[in-house]
Design brief:
alpha/beta; five-stranded parallel sheet; 5 strands
Length: 230
């Protein structure tokens, strides 16, 4: 499916789960501190899930707003996936000790990475056994956030170890123009093709820049249904 067809499906409904959503959370809500305290990580994937016919899902978020719009989509997706019996591990890249790939080739593309940070110690073991990888980001200058891109670049240390997995994209943006997500979708689809992933769909959020807006919308429910569908 090309980029324009991928985006067009948003208006076709839940069939491919490409939906309109929301923008960057520019202001923290008063309840953010409480939300942070309650944001314990969901159960980490185990091989037991696969043995029971369920999936191990890794959700990687790239927003520096713990209580932002893309974070809410991640919350609801996870809720739906867990309701369906899947095992979910969430990695909030903006709040972890992570470092960009140095291109040193010490890993020789088969690991381990010399950067012994949270990506290598915490995330990578989960990614290697994941069935589904969910990428969640606010739209920054028409691409993914630095935090999420940092994680993706570090895939290099286990080159080709993630081939054949399933994936999905969830993103939010302040902008509402039809072309808002074109660059991000192009990047995501190129990644899907290169990694030989099976795309499960996307939630693309247009035109609402605040948490209060997304909370009044149908889009959290759309993310929940995406979680239930995988």
């Amino acid at each position: 499916m090309n980029r324009r067809d991928f985006i067009k499906v948003a208006s076709a409904g839940f069939g491919t789960l490409l939906v309109s959503g929301l923008g960057l959370s520019l202001i923290k809500s008063p309840g953010e501190a409480q939300a942070d305290a309650q944001a314990a990580q969901p159960t980490a994937p185990t091989q037991t899930a696969a043995a029971n016919g369920k999936s191990n899902i890794v959700v990687i978020t790239g927003s520096p707003h713990r209580n932002g719009t893309s974070a809410l989509l991640a919350d609801k997706f996870i809720e739906g996936a867990q309701a369906n019996g899947h095992s979910v591990f969430r990695f909030n890249a903006a709040f972890e000790d992570i470092n960009p790939c140095r291109g040193c080739n010490a890993c020789q593309r088969s690991g381990p990475c010399v950067l012994n940070d949270a990506i290598e110690k915490t995330l990578m073991p989960q990614l290697l056994q994941a069935d589904i990888i969910a990428l969640v980001t606010p739209l920054y200058y028409y691409g993914m956030s630095t935090q999420l891109k940092t994680v993706i670049d570090r895939f290099y240390s286990h080159h080709r170890s993630f081939d054949g997995k399933k994936s999905l994209l969830m993103a939010t943006a302040y902008n509402s123009a039809g072309w808002t997500f074109e660059a991000l979708v192009d990047h995501y689809q190129s990644l899907v093709s290169y990694m030989q992933w099976q795309d499960l769909g996307a939630v693309l959020g247009y035109g609402c820049g605040y948490r209060s807006a997304i909370e009044r919308s149908e889009f959290p429910d759309q993310a929940y249904k995406l979680g239930r569908s995988v």
